[in-house]
Design a protein that fits this description.
Radius of gyration: 20 Å
Membrane topology: Multi-pass membrane protein
CATH architecture: Up-down Bundle
CATH class: Mainly Alpha
Subcellular location: Cell membrane
Main location: membrane
Structural class: mainly alpha
Strand content: under 5%
Shape: globular
Largest sheet: 2 strands, antiparallel
Keywords: Cell membrane, Membrane, Transmembrane, Transmembrane helix
Number of domains: 1
Strand order of the largest sheet: 1-2
CATH topology: Growth Hormone, Chain: A
GO molecular function: transmembrane transporter activity
Number of strands: 2
Length: 422
């Protein structure tokens, strides 16, 4: 049995063949689950230009609604961390997925800012834990040498949400109303919940490894583990930078880059199509050439493209698309190998709690990033955003620091593998 895998050990022949039939089915199901989760979150940004006038809310209130999800997810993740390794991961996934769906129903029914805010909080409380459960399942069932590919497939959920979800959501919002977007997500969630309940096998091998029956002590043992601290710091830096730009992306594209709002779906569609291709390629590259070298490449590309993007003025639609595609290459080249590296850090008995705490750190950092960004950003009477370039400089700084810190995160993993860099 691989020391990285407790539920699906593989031999060399299987490694050559790739995923087993069940692994292929499972990663596709988990990717679909992530698709609904990510779509619910990222749809808020492109809907911003429609939501704000529809509900008569300010840019500041919209920023609060976006960050509310992140803060709620961060708090719930910490609370769930002590229990994350005490249950069958399938049952845990179903519980939080149903709660997430109910929160999305609230968003669909919202007629004012306060109901929308409540809906975002509920989806955050439940949705924020789903991602960590999914990562724990992948870590349990896929060994490290396959994990880059597994993470690459998972990240196609993000790309698919760009290709299918966001353009479809904007189409529905433009032709009917924005409520329909959340109704559609509820429908997709029902399909995913049914598939998980019927077709997914229990994921409970980790229960045999439990030694501490007290959830609070289990949480403290995870948070207090010195070798996890630097990993949490890297997660903080990556999330803070990412959440600074994302909530204001559609408003910046329309008002600062001069792209007509009807062309927003085209930008998301093309960027997403490229991302569907890029994600699996980055996953394979991280398995073939190393997780850290791929991550460092992604950081360099991100730094260059963020500096270009945040300093753009009015541009053509083609230029906006090219810049977005190149920026996504950088983002994916960081995201996929970083998740694969992080998954190799915790002990098998602490994978669920580590993933939950890491997700909480990510969400809380992202929430703070959104709040800081809202404090820095100002709005001209014509709707254009001021000081967006300052956000870019902050993102560049966090990216460079995270690239340096990640080198030290991967060193213990590399030593276990008898290498200098993994």
């Amino acid at each position: 049995m691989s020391d990285q895998t407790i539920a699906a050990p593989i031999d060399d022949d299987q490694q050559e063949r790739g995923f087993s039939r069940y692994q292929s089915f499972l990663i596709a199901l988990l990717a679909f689950t992530q698709f609904t989760l990510i779509l619910d979150f990222i749809i808020m940004s492109p809907l911003g230009a429609i939501l704000m006038p529809s509900l008569n809310i300010t840019a500041g209130q919209f920023g609060v609604a976006v960050s509310a999800y992140a803060f709620a997810a961060g708090i719930s993740g910490v609370l769930a961390a002590g229990f994350a390794d005490r249950f069958d991961r399938k049952q845990l996934l179903l519980f939080f997925y149903v709660g997430f769906m109910l929160g999305t129903v609230l968003c669909a029914l919202a007629q004012n800012f306060h109901v929308l805010l409540l809906g975002r909080i509920v989806t955050g409380v439940f949705g924020g834990v789903i991602g960590s459960v999914v990562l724990a399942i992948v870590t349990d069932l896929f060994p490290l040498q396959q994990r880059g590919r597994a993470m690459g497939v998972l990240q196609t959920a993000f790309a698919a949400s760009q290709v299918l979800g966001v353009p479809a959501g904007l189409f529905l919002a433009n032709h009917w109303n924005w409520h329909i977007c959340f109704v559609a997500i509820v429908g997709l969630s029902i399909v995913a919940i049914a598939a998980i309940a019927i077709a997914m096998q229990p994921v409970d091998a980790h229960l045999k490894l439990q030694h501490d029956s007290n959830p609070f002590r289990h949480l403290i043992a995870t948070v207090g583990q010195p070798r996890y601290t630097l990993a949490f710091l890297v997660t903080t830096l990556l999330a803070t930078g990412g959440f600074m730009l994302m909530p204001f992306g559609s408003a910046f594209t329309v008002h600062n880059l001069g792209i007509d709002i009807v062309h927003l779906p085209t930008i998301y569609l093309v960027s997403g199509l490229f991302s569907i291709i890029i994600g699996p390629l980055v996953g394979r590259a991280s398995d073939a050439f190393g997780k850290y070298p791929t991550f460092a490449f992604g950081c360099v590309v991100t730094v260059i493209m963020v500096l270009i993007y945040t300093n753009l003025g009015h541009v053509s639609l083609l230029t906006a698309i090219v810049v977005n595609v190149l920026m996504f290459i950088g983002i994916f080249s960081r995201m996929i190998p970083s998740q694969a590296l992080m998954s190799a850090i915790p002990d098998a008995s602490q994978r669920g709690s580590f993933s939950a705490v890491s997700a909480s750190v990510q969400q809380l950092s992202g929430g703070l990033g959104s709040v800081f960004a809202a404090a820095i950003i100002a709005e001209d009477p014509d709707g254009s955003l001021l000081h967006f370039d300052r956000l870019g400089y902050i993102v560049v700084a966090t990216t460079i620091i995270s690239m340096i810190a990640m080198y030290f995160v991967q060193r213990p993993i590399a030593r276990r593998a008898g290498r200098r860099i993994v």
